[in-house]
Design brief:
The complex is a heterodimer. Chain A is mainly alpha-helical. Helix content of chain A is about 75%, strand content about 0%. Chain A has a two-stranded antiparallel ribbon with strand order 1-2. The longest helix of chain A has about 35 residues. Chain A is globular. Chain A starts with a helix and ends in a 9-residue tail after the last helix. Chain B folds into two domains: about 190 residues, Rossmann fold (3-Layer(aba) Sandwich); about 150 residues, Response regulator (Rossmann fold, 3-Layer(aba) Sandwich). Chain B is built from 13 helices and 13 strands. In chain B, the strands form two sheets. In chain B, strands 6, 7, 8, 9, 10, 11, 12 and 13 form an eight-stranded mixed beta sheet that branches. In chain B, helix 2 links the parallel strand 1 and strand 2. In chain B, helix 6 runs parallel beside helix 7 and helix 12 crosses helix 13. The relative contact order of chain B is 0.14. Classes of the chains: A mainly alpha, B alpha/beta. At the A-B interface, helix 1, helix 10 and helix 11 of A face helix 2, strand 7, helix 8, helix 9 and helix 10 of B.
Chain lengths: ~300, ~375
């Protein structure tokens, strides 16, 4: 029974991790290629969730909503890149942080203006609802299994895109030397728009997929954004591989920590106290993980030192 | 006209000013209007302002600010309202950790604080203050109602869960106080947590036959949807906050049939409540939540005190508040010795009426329940 519970928790951690990866991938791409700190990445997550909830609510189809979330987040990303972000590449990081923080406020208030302050309804599509029985008799929600599959699929697709396609070559070249690639005749500003829109679409996809599990509301992107930053710092800024490994590490640490710590403390103190202290310690775990990684490898796991 | 008549006229004018126009009261409302908990603050504000609008009292001025659910922001707003806006009364805070940051300092400066929601145990017992009035409840109350009713609902082995913050601890303590079954699991989650897969796995493995959750706002939506999808299927019970009007529509069918402890419900049968629900729906085009009902009651309590005493005369105003001479939407309402309400507690069930999810009272959990910490209060 305990082994089963542990396996179930590991699956939960994996699922949480791959969803974090969808957020972190865009963030790390944008930082790696353009050297831009984008605090508004969480807003794109929210845009995806709201687009999915609004379209699914109007048409009754989650899948149309999912398509809408990709389109809306990519479009929002492209527009933001062309109107605001483009002016920030040459500026220092503090200006970027200020401008993208302003974007968070604009997106949040804009969404509140359009959809109101009350959470929206978005449910898991009927075809994926309910639990399935895994080998060994473990009951696990089908939707979460699908999320794991989608996340790993997107990761594989990204590795292929970066490693095997012409666009990927340009992205890597842009990371290495942006003046040279511009001199070789690549339209660098178009490349930047594409990368930014791609990162935005991934965040939008994560927002829509996670939105079906949680509450679709204004401000839902910011807590995820903080975790995504932890992930890319652990993984090494600019590295897709680092983002994947970092995301799964953070997902596992957080989920298993919340499960194991109260149990372990419960052997030495009352259950009520163990629950409270364990929960408090568990919420610190990922930051402790980050600190340890930074002490051992200051550039992150796969970063350039 | 000689000096004497001028003086007399002046004295008469002053005397008349004193009688004819009551002392204006300035209220500072600090509540959550943006971010994850915004729907709770907006309902608090709308309920409060509905009563203010209905009374149309020119002597009442309300300043409203957004605390963003952040204790530091709430403290700054309170300082600003007290020092530069010179408010007489503060109100509106939804979250207990914010209340703990604001209330003791405000009452120490001689301001009145009327709580529309948060009423942590610390302020109900040792930290009580004659200028602090909880209009809503004491934090434990709605959880006590759920606990007292859980055994009746057939829950004998409960798994209980709340966020790790002051009201979360009050919640689980309150549930256990009158619960007659066993507690087989007790978990504190993070405040603002959105994924409950880990907790649901523990519920599945715990051998419980029912689950008590205190997860207000977006946390409740996330949990209830994920719980329904997990197929665990044990009955859910909680305080009203976990299944409130402001979040039910986002939960959808997943919330149907769940039970929750409350001190108010839209279908509670009294004239004040009927008028409130109708007026609220008319003005805002939605059904009120418990938060809206507390906001409405708080404004009416304040208005009733203003009619009796001047806010400049603190002891008289305090006595006028304590008399609670207003028509509460809860029907029965009185303040106990530590300025917390003595009231009936109900259990509600989530039902669907037409296209709308709402709550209906299914039973009375406790009658004339007061503040469990009033013995520790010395004032």
């Amino acid at each position: 029974m305990t082994a089963m519970l542990l396996i179930e928790q590991a699956l939960n951690g994996l699922q949480y991790g791959v969803m974090l990866f969808l957020m972190a991938a865009g963030l790390t791409l944008v930082f790696g290629v353009m050297g831009l700190i984008n605090l508004a990445h969480g807003s794109l997550f929210m845009v995806g969730a709201f687009a999915c909830a609004a379209v699914a609510g109007a048409t009754g189809s989650f899948w149309l909503g999912l398509a809408a979330s990709l389109a809306a987040a990519a479009a929002a990303g492209a527009i933001v890149e062309m109107t605001v972000i483009r002016r920030l590449y040459a500026r220092d990081h503090l200006d970027q942080v200020l401008a993208t923080f302003a974007l968070i406020l604009v997106f949040s208030e804009g969404t509140r203006w359009a959809f109101g302050s009350f959470p929206l309804y978005l449910d898991i599509p009927a075809a994926l609802a309910g639990p399935v029985t895994l080998p060994g008799g473990l009951e696990y929600p089908l939707y979460r299994l699908v999320l794991i599959g989608v996340g790993l699929g997107v990761a594989a697709g990204l590795f292929w895109l970066i490693g095997r396609t012409r666009l990927g070559i340009r992205i890597r070249a842009g990371e290495a030397d942006r003046e040279m690639i511009a001199a070789l005749g690549v339209d660098i500003s178009r490349l930047y728009t594409i990368v930014f829109a791609l990162g935005a679409a991934l965040a939008g996809l994560a927002g829509a997929l996670v939105g079906a599990l949680q509450s679709v509301q204004v401000g839902m992107g910011e807590p995820v954004l903080i975790l995504a930053f932890v992930v890319i710092v652990i993984g090494g800024i600019g590295s897709i591989k680092g983002a994947l490994v970092g995301a799964i590490l953070v997902g596992m640490t957080d989920t298993l920590g919340r499960f194991v710590l109260p149990l372990a403390l419960g052997t030495v103190m009352s259950r009520s106290d163990a629950g409270a202290i364990g929960a408090a310690l568990a919420s610190m775990l990922i930051y402790i993980l980050m600190a340890v990684v930074l002490v051992l490898r200051p550039g992150g796991l796969y970063g350039r030192a | 006209m000689n000096v004497k008549t001028i003086l007399m006229a002046a004295v008469a004018a002053v005397a008349m000013a004193d009688n004819a126009t009551a002392e204006p009261v300035k209220v500072g409302m600090i509540t959550t209007l943006s971010g994850g908990g915004a729907s709770l603050g907006i309902d608090t504000r709308d309920g409060f302002m509905l009563a203010v609008g209905m009374a149309n009292n020119p002597d009442l001025e309300v300043i409203i600010e957004d605390d963003q659910r952040k204790p530091d922001v709430a403290v700054q707003l309170a300082d600003k309202m007290i020092q530069s806006d010179k408010v007489d009364v503060l109100t509106g805070i939804v979250w207990s950790n914010l209340a703990m940051a604001v209330v003791p300092a405000a009452t120490a400066q001689g301001k009145f604080y009327l709580s529309t929601n948060a009423a942590p145990s610390q302020l109900a017992g040792k930290g009580c203050n004659p200028n602090y009035f909880a209009v809503s409840y004491q934090n434990d109350n709605l959880h006590e109602a759920a606990g007292a009713y859980a055994a009746t609902a057939g829950i004998t082995k409960a798994f209980i869960m709340a966020p790790n913050y002051p009201a979360g601890k009050d919640s689980l303590a309150g549930f256990k106080r009158f619960y007659e079954g066993d507690v087989v699991g007790e978990v504190y989650t993070q405040l603002g947590q959105t994924d409950y897969a880990g907790e649901i796995a523990q519920i599945r493995a715990s051998g419980a036959d029912g689950v008590f959750i205190f997860l207000p706002g977006g946390m409740g939506i996330s949990f209830v949807k994920q719980y329904a999808d997990s197929g665990v299927g044990l009955p859910l019970i909680g305080p009203a906050f976990s299944f409130d009007q402001s979040i039910l529509q986002a939960m959808g069918d997943a919330a149907l049939g769940t039970l929750n402890g409350a001190n108010w419900s839209p279908d509670l049968d009294n004239a004040a409540n009927a008028a409130f629900v109708t007026a609220f729906a008319e003005k805002y085009d939605r059904l009120p939540s418990v938060y809206a009902s507390y906001g409405y009651d708080t404004a009416n309590l304040l208005l009733s005190a203003m009619a009796k005493a001047s806010v400049a005369d603190a002891p008289a105003f305090r006595a006028a508040l304590k008399a609670a001479d207003f028509a509460s939407v809860r029907g029965k309402f009185a303040f106990g010795p530590a300025n917390h309400p003595i009231q009936d507690l109900y259990v509600r069930e989530v039902v669907k009426e037409g296209d709308l999810y709402t709550n209906k009272i299914v039973g009375t959990a406790m009658t004339d329940r007061g503040n469990p910490y009033e013995g520790e209060c010395k004032m």
